User: Fold 3-beta hydroxysteroid dehydrogenase from Propioniciclava flava.
Amino acid sequence: MRIFVTGATGWIGSAAVNDLLAAGHRVMGLARNEPAVALLQKQGAAALRGDLDDLDTPRRGAQEADAVLHLANKHDWTNPSESNRTERAAVEALANALIGSDKAFVLASGLLRPDTSRPAFETDTSPAVGPESLRGGSENLALDYATQGVRSVALRFTPSVHGAGDHGFIAQLVAAAQRTGGSGYVGDGTHAWAAVHRTDAAHLARLALEQATPGARLHAVAEEGVPTRVIAEAIPEAVGVKTTSIDPADALTHFGFIGRFFSTDMTASSAATQATYGWSPTSPTLVEDIKKGGYTT
Assistant:
């Protein structure tokens, strides 16, 4: 298949491009600038110059491809409403371009559910509905197109998609530890985060494009829940600081914006995903990546 990938040069996207090419697919990636074009070409993929602010370009990419993998997101934590607006507009443009085609449309989503007392399951419906909700309610919007001849699929990623070179949430925790001299966890540190290595996540993205049925929800989850204290205790070994408990009232001061999330349970199961698609994560765990210095280089 010829796959159009947004976010193709991003953290997950670059790994997904490699996995798709290795499996014999052709890839055309959305590229914002010349360095992105060069990176895609070096990998062996084609580049379509443009971004999510120019919807005609991703729309054309979707029309010219056999399937779409939508991974791009602005992730502007200083202006989340703009990120949500852009995401919803992009999903709508891509999905509209695919109506009646029966082409796969796999989009990145998060592990949201109304009941945080248990892990999220693939059967859980996202509570994010409408333009003003998280990610602009893009998961529910995309899945609505499953009745319009679009093989739309939600691929839900964990809060930590880790690996050497990761600049996401775990990197922020390491930076906070280095800045303050203490690797913190909030309260007693029993809150837990699901995690997955980027190469395992990228492999599942390919399986979703190849196999998933319209309206499916897949969980890119290798570890159901790593306690935040365990995460914090792995950091000192890599950066040489002490582990410390942080009062919930001081979480934002110690961690920065990520303090809003580090005291929240974000656990999830991927049992159904693994059974249905034959996906079996094999890459290093989150703690293994931290301890071997994946966040200090």
